[in-house]
Specification:
The chain has helices spanning 18-22, 56-65; strands at 3-8, 27-29, 35-37, 41-43, 46-52, 71-75. By secondary structure, it is an alpha+beta fold. It has a single domain (3-75), classed as Alpha-Beta Plaits. The strands form 2 sheets. A 4-stranded antiparallel β-sheet has the order 4-5-1-6, covered by helices on one side. It has a two-stranded antiparallel ribbon with strand order 2-3. It is globular. The structure holds iron/sulfur cluster.
C-alpha cells in the first residue's frame, strides 16, 4: 500500500488555522497559536507523520490551504 509522509515546518507557522479546517485529524491549534501535527515525530527540526492513502486527500488539502506553504506531502516508496 502506498504511504505518504506529512512534513510540517512548525517554525514557519503563522497560526492561520487553515490546516485544521481542512484536516482536523492531522492538525490542531496549540496554546502558542501555532498548529500542531497530531501524532507526529520530530525529524531534523520538522514534524513528520506517516499516513495511509485514504488520508492523503485531506492532508493535501491542508498543505494547499496553508498560506505560507510549510506543509509538504511526500510519497513514500512501496515496500
Ligand atoms: S495553515 Fe499553515 S500557517 Fe496556518 S496554522 Fe496551519 S500550518 Fe500554520
Amino acid at each position: 500500500m502506498v504511504k505518504y509522509k506529512i512534513v510540517y515546518d512548525r517554525n514557519g507557522c503563522i497560526g492561520a488555522g487553515a490546516c485544521v479546517g481542512m484536516s482536523p485529524n492531522d492538525f490542531e491549534m496549540a496554546n502558542d497559536g501555532k498548529a500542531d501535527l497530531k501524532q507526529s515525530q520530530d525529524e531534523n527540526g520538522n514534524f513528520v507523520k506517516i499516513i495511509d492513502e485514504k488520508d492523503y486527500k485531506a492532508a493535501l488539502d491542508a498543505a494547499d490551504a496553508c498560506p505560507v506553504a510549510i506543509i509538504k506531502i511526500v510519497k513514500l516508496e512501496e515496500k
